[in-house]
Design goal:
108 residues; alpha+beta; 4 strands; 30% strand
Length: 108
């Protein structure tokens, strides 16, 4: 299985995500999962992957991710440590940084 969140969303095998920020989300919100929103060039449009409904949102330290959630994030072959390191490297955050854990269902 490919370990690419876009692929996982398209195939609806990912139902948890972690985001820094996104404090506005609440249970029941319906949003579009999109491929890219930042860095779009003039004339480019957003590529919608799926419509999702938020099931739960909670804040937790990044380093408290469980193996089950690593799988639900779309990385079934990764360990929690590898997942944490990916986010630390990408976002340049501390492993104990607070992150929003967002659980969702696919609507369409």
């Amino acid at each position: 299985m490919r370990q690419n969140p876009t692929y996982q969303v398209r195939n609806q095998t990912k139902d948890v995500t972690r985001r820094f920020g996104w404090l506005f989300l609440k249970r029941g919100d319906e949003v579009n999962a999109v491929e890219k929103t930042m860095g779009l060039k003039k004339g480019e449009t957003i590529n919608r992957l799926a419509r999702i409904r938020i099931k739960s949102v909670r804040q937790e330290p990044l380093n408290e991710i469980t193996q089950d959630d690593v799988v639900r994030e779309g990385f079934p072959d990764w360990t929690p440590d590898r997942f944490i390191q990916m986010l630390v490297d990408h976002y340049r955050v501390d492993p104990v940084a607070t992150v929003n854990r967002i659980e969702f269902d696919y609507i369409q």
